[in-house]
Amino acid sequence: MVSEPALHRVYLGLGSNLGNRAANLRLARHSLPEKGVKVLAASPLYQTAPWGGVKQPDFLNQVLLGETKLKPLALLDTVKELEREAGRTPSVFWGPRVLDIDILLYDELTFGSERLTIPHREMKKRAFVLAPLLDIAPGLVLPGGDTAAACYARLPEQEKAGVVLYAEVLSDN
């Protein structure tokens, strides 16, 4: 008898700063199930200042909780395919993009290869990841024992100030 592959809980970080940013994120959310990732929870959208020093438009960011039978590298191939289908083309490192999907966490796995590092190596330093992550998993303990809330609390206020609920941005217009 062949056993079913295990379901894995994954957290994905989504971002877009080209085209219709909200529609790009919605496309990703709605396309993931057909690619083998069931979306269990989605954070609100946040408008965020660009990170990394490249001059470009603000991003919309979101974090999703999902479950999948895909192994880590297969999941990476799947999200990169979804980025290409949305219109992402190679550009400047940390530059503008139609769609960016990062694997933040995969179960409690700690994994490293040339193509993928889990947990995402920069997530503890990025308010645009931690703020939406806390919306859907406020008590989340990260591999290594640190909590997402503690990581967010340690961030500089300037980093946090660049992350604003998108509904609040819209209400100011």
TrEMBL record:
Q: What is its EC number?
A: 2.7.6.3
Gene3D superfamilies from the UniProt entry: 7,8-Dihydro-6-hydroxymethylpterin-pyrophosphokinase HPPK (3.30.70.560)
InterPro entries named in the record:
Hppk, Hppk_sf
**What does the UniProt keyword field contain?**
ATP-binding, Folate biosynthesis, Kinase, Nucleotide-binding, Transferase
Q: Which reactions is this enzyme annotated as catalysing? A: 6-hydroxymethyl-7,8-dihydropterin + ATP = (7,8-dihydropterin-6-yl)methyl diphosphate + AMP + H(+)
**Pfam families reported for this sequence:** HPPK (PF01288)
According to the UniProt entry, its GO molecular function terms are:
2-amino-4-hydroxy-6-hydroxymethyldihydropteridine diphosphokinase activity; ATP binding; kinase activity
Concerning SUPFAM superfamilies, the annotation shows: 6-hydroxymethyl-7,8-dihydropterin pyrophosphokinase, HPPK
What are the 7,8-dihydro-6-hydroxymethylpterin-pyrophosphokinase domain coordinates in residue numbering? 11-138
Q: Which residues form the signal peptide?
A: none
Q: Quote the protein name from its UniProt record.
A: 2-amino-4-hydroxy-6-hydroxymethyldihydropteridine diphosphokinase
Question: By which gene is this protein encoded?
Answer: folK
